[in-house]
C-alpha cells in the first residue's frame, strides 16, 4: 500500500485569506464572528456568522468566469490556487492523468439557487440563467479545478453534510494507497451564509442566538453554549504519494495515515447520546492507520458548540482512549472560525497537519465555565507547544455520518 502525505495547503477563512494569515489568527485565538451584513437579518433569531472578509475573487478568476460561478466555486478555486502554489509542484513535469480532484460540500451553490429562484418567480423561466445548474451543483468544484489545471485523474465530490470534506480526504488517501493516482487535490468548501440557509438553521434552533456578543458566541464545551455559529470558506489540500513527493523534494506538512467511518442510525440531526457512532469511527480510523490509542497525542474535535453534540463527542473520546484521554491535548477550531459545514472537515484536517508540523496545539477560545460533562483538557487556558506525533480530526454530519481522519508527523518535515 502506498503512503499519502500532505504537501500543499490553501485556506480561505473567516480569520484569514491565506494559510499564513489563518494560522496566525489561530495562534492569536482570534474570533471570526460578527453581525451578518449580507442581507436584512432583522427577522432572524440568530444574527451572527463567521464570514470571509475582504475576498477579491478577481485575484483568482477573470470577470467572465466570475459571472458564471457561485461563491462556493470562487472560494474553492482560490484555495486550490493557493494549495497548488504552496506545494511547489511543477505541473509541466507531472503526469496529469494521475492527478485527481476529490472535494466535498454539504450544500453547494445555494446562493445561486436562491437568486435564480427569485428570477424565475419574478420574471419567468425564460430569464433563468443557462449557467444556473453548473453554478449550483456540488460536483462542479472538482470539475472547475480539473479544467483550470488539466487534471485528468479521479474526479468527483462527496456529500455528507458536515462530514463532506473529511470524506473527500479519506477518499483521497485511499486513492493514493491503491496506487490509482500520484496526487489528489482534495478538501472542501461552503458558502451558505444566505437567507434561506439561515432561515432553515434558525427554524431548527441549531444556531447560537448570542447576538449581543458575536465574538464569544461559539463556545464549544462551555456550560453556556447555545448552538453553532455558521462559518464559510474553503480548504484545499494537496494529498500526494510519499515517494512521488520526496522525489521532487517537496515540503511535507504531515502524513495522512487513515480514516474510519460509521453511521449513528439514531436521528436526522441529533447525535447518539452515548457517542457510540463517533467512537466506532475513531476506533476504525486508528485500526486503518495501524495506530494504538495510546500513541495519539492530539484530538481536533468536531466541537460545534451544540448542547448535545459536545457531550456525545466527549463521551466518545473517553470510550476510545480510556485513561489515556487524560493525556490528550484536545481543542475545537470552531471556537474561532465557526462551523464551515461541508468545509469544516478539510479546514480542521489542515489545522491538525499544521499542529503536527509546528508542534503546537491551539487554544479553544470562549470556554468561560467548562461543562462538567465535557471533562477533557480542551486547552481553555492557552495553547501548548508539544512534540505531537499523531493527531486525529473528527467530523460528524446531519444524518448520522461520522468520520475520523488520522494524521502523523512526517520525519522529513521542513516547513
Radius of gyration: 20 Å
Helical fraction: 25-40%
Which whole number gives the mean pLDDT?
Answer: 97
Shape call: globular
Secondary-structure-derived class: alpha/beta
- Straight-line N-to-C gap: 26 Å
Across the major sheet, the strand order is 5-4-6-7-1-8-14-13-9-10
Strand portion, in percent? 15-25%
Q: How many helical elements?
A: 13
Low-confidence stretches: none
Describe the structure.
The protein has helices spanning 19-28, 63-67, 71-87, 110-123, 132-136, 140-149, 164-177, 195-203, 242-247, 276-289, 307-321, 334-337, 344-358, and strands at 4-12, 33-35, 48-50, 99-104, 155-158, 183-190, 233-241, 254-263, 298-300, 329-331, 360-361, 384-385, 390-397, 401-408. It is α/β, with parallel strands linked by helices and 415 residues long. It has a 10-stranded mixed β-sheet, sandwiched between helices. Helix 7 packs across helix 13 (344-358) and helix 10 packs across helix 11 (307-321). The longest helix is centred in the first third of the chain and has 17 residues, at 71-87. The protein is globular and about 65 Å long.
What's this entry about, in short?
The protein is of the alpha/beta class. The chain has 13 helices and 14 strands.
Give a quick set of tags describing it:
single chain; globular; two-stranded antiparallel ribbon; 10-stranded mixed β-sheet; 415 residues; 14 strands; alpha/beta
How would you summarize the topology of this molecule?
Layout: E1 4-12, H1 19-28, E2 33-35, E3 48-50, H2 63-67, H3 71-87, E4 99-104, H4 110-123, H5 132-136, H6 140-149, E5 155-158, H7 164-177, E6 183-190, H8 195-203, E7 233-241, H9 242-247, E8 254-263, H10 276-289, E9 298-300, H11 307-321, E10 329-331, H12 334-337, H13 344-358, E11 360-361, E12 384-385, E13 390-397, E14 401-408
Parallel strand pairs: 4-5, 4-6, 9-10, 9-13
Antiparallel strand pairs: 1-7, 1-8, 2-3, 6-7, 8-14, 11-12, 13-14
Amino acid at each position: 500500500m502506498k503512503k499519502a502525505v500532505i504537501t500543499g495547503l490553501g485556506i480561505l477563512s473567516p480569520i484569514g485569506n491565506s494559510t499564513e494569515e489563518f494560522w496566525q489568527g489561530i495562534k492569536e485565538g482570534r474570533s471570526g464572528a460578527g453581525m451578518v451584513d449580507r442581507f436584512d437579518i432583522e427577522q432572524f433569531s440568530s444574527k451572527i456568522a463567521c464570514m470571509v472578509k475582504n475576498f477579491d475573487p478577481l485575484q483568482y478568476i477573470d470577470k467572465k468566469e466570475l459571472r458564471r460561478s457561485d461563491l462556493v466555486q470562487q472560494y474553492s478555486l482560490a484555495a486550490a490556487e493557493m494549495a497548488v502554489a504552496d506545494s511547489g509542484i511543477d505541473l509541466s513535469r507531472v503526469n496529469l492523468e494521475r492527478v485527481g480532484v476529490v472535494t466535498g460540500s454539504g450544500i453547494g451553490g445555494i446562493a445561486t439557487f436562491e437568486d435564480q429562484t427569485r428570477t424565475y418567480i419574478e420574471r419567468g423561466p425564460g430569464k433563468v440563467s443557462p449557467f444556473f445548474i453548473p453554478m449550483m451543483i456540488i460536483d462542479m468544484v472538482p470539475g472547475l479545478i480539473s479544467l483550470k489545471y488539466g487534471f485528468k485523474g479521479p474526479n468527483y465530490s462527496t456529500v455528507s453534510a458536515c462530514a463532506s470534506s473529511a470524506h473527500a480526504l479519506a477518499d483521497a488517501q485511499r486513492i493514493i494507497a491503491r496506487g490509482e493516482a500520484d496526487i489528489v487535490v482534495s478538501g472542501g468548501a461552503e458558502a451558505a451564509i444566505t437567507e434561506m440557509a439561515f432561515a432553515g438553521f434558525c427554524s431548527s434552533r441549531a444556531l447560537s442566538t448570542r447576538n449581543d456578543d458575536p465574538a464569544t458566541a461559539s463556545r464549544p464545551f462551555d456550560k453556556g453554549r447555545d448552538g453553532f455559529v455558521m462559518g464559510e470558506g474553503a480548504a484545499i489540500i494537496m494529498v500526494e504519494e510519499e515517494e512521488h513527493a520526496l522525489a521532487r523534494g517537496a515540503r511535507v506538512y504531515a502524513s495522512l495515515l487513515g480514516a474510519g467511518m460509521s453511521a449513528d442510525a439514531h436521528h436526522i440531526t441529533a447525535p447518539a447520546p452515548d457517542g457510540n457512532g463517533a467512537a466506532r469511527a475513531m476506533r476504525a480510523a486508528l485500526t486503518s492507520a495501524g495506530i494504538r490509542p495510546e500513541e495519539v497525542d492530539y484530538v481536533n474535535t468536531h466541537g460545534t458548540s451544540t448542547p448535545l453534540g459536545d457531550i456525545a463527542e466527549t463521551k466518545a473520546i473517553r470510550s476510545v482512549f480510556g485513561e489515556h484521554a487524560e493525556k490528550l491535548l484536545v481543542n475545537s477550531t470552531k471556537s474561532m472560525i465557526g462551523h464551515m459545514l461541508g468545509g469544516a472537515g478539510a479546514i480542521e484536517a489542515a489545522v491538525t497537519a499544521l499542529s503536527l508540523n509546528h508542534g503546537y496545539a491551539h487554544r479553544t477560545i470562549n470556554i468561560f465555565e467548562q461543562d462538567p460533562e465535557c471533562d477533557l483538557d480542551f486547552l481553555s487556558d492557552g495553547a501548548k507547544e508539544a512534540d505531537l506525533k499523531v493527531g486525529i480530526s473528527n467530523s460528524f454530519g446531519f444524518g448520522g455520518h461520522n468520520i475520523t481522519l488520522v494524521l502523523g508527523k512526517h520525519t522529513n518535515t521542513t516547513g
